[in-house]
Specification:
transmembrane; mainly alpha; flat; YneE/VCCN1/2-like; 15 helices; transport; two-stranded antiparallel ribbon; transmembrane helix
Length: 506
Amino acid sequence: MVAQNPLFSGGHVMRKFSATVINDVWPETLFFTAVAVAVAVVTETKTHNLAISNSLLTVLGTVLGLVISFRTSSAYERYQEGRKMWTNIQIASRNVAQIIWVHIPFERTDKEKNTMTTVQSVIEKKSMINLVQAFSVSVKHFLRGETGVYYEDLYPLICFLPRYANSVGPKTEADMLPLWAASEEAEYPLHKAQPPPPSRGATAPPSLNEDFKSETSSNWVRTLVGRGKPSRSNSVDPEKALADIQSHRPLKPAKNPPEASFFDYFPFLRIFAVLTKCCRRKNKRRLRDSLGRKIKPSFTESNVPLEVTIYLNNYLAYCLKNGWLQPALATGLMNNIATLQDTLSNLDRIGNTPLPFAYQAHLRMSLWLYLLFLPFQVVSALHWLTIPGTAFASFLLLGFLEIGQEIENPFNYDLNDLDLDSFCLAIQRELHEITAHTTPDPSTFVFTSWNQPFAPADRRSAEEIVTMAAGGYTHPDHGDAEPGMATIRRTLLKSWRDVDHITRQM
């Protein structure tokens, strides 16, 4: 779910206010309140009695309440399912990385008797684990409607993948592979870009083509000094943990939410936005429309996550062909890659399957009619209290309706959406922790003085037990037993009795 509750987290008050649905329902609430004011004034001043029978109030209110409750519940189920899918990505990513890092040997020879050194093996396996990280990052951009591969947190992870079907000869657009062809732009043609240099230090970047040198200068500043703008609350910049790779075009930021304006925090002043329309930038991404409703990004297809899983499957086939994986481990690796693909399809289903328009339109029209006739039905009983009563009922019912509409696609930049960036960073930390494991021989750390395997019954170290067993000594509490497994089994039984007794006393 969200990384923190916007209501109780730090930050200014107006940002917390923006996390509510007040901005979404205030125009309708204001309209129905105005209707209530008109009805109350006309009726209470004896100009004309606008009261009508309230016989349908209870029946229609109950039906609308049940329908709105179902609408909100179904949207929250999608919200929870989206969170579960990201948990599946996290689990499958860990499993794939552990199988690649631990179970594929570091010193190996392929079918052609070519020996791969340990350094080459580590580079190869770490590169494939970087692809596992790239999968979650590409899914994040896919769910947010951000297509392509040229992002500061994605491009460094996959830039080494082949770009053309033919590795020799001239490079043309006809030979470009789908992963790169989908991100191609006429302004920055890939087939005219210079390849990056073999290596470079932390000095100034090498010269680029004159066609795009000026456009990429700002990108180089972000790449070498620090990508993007760090948060005000801290100086953490996750993109600094990625590689510095030269790109032939400017890279888009890893996180690019629409900017909030003054009117997003003060929705009742939005009527004056029309006067300042000519002063605003036309290419600026807006967070809300003129009535204060959130602008949802367009959902587009992306083949980047699919291409990443294809390369992972290709690596699995490569390892199987050379006999570097046992069948059971190969099956586990294949199943986890399939889990990543299944999760991608499920996330696509959640984000790309809105509630049918007929259902949304009928529900909203029914609610509008109910709220429109509500003042006429309660004015005879509430009198002037009809005005605040109608305002409260409008805000309550319309708020629940908007909440359901907002959380049914929880993958955008809203404060109530899932924190996809934090999920990707958690996967990144876990994958780096896996590759930090040195896969040591257990004999180098098991039989040491730091290990007391049979505590609490036997608090001797593993080193002492092995030494005494080799010399024919027995445990002082089990002197009648023969040294070896008989003593160990009796010690294990005593450990069980001690643990059972100690833990039940707590």
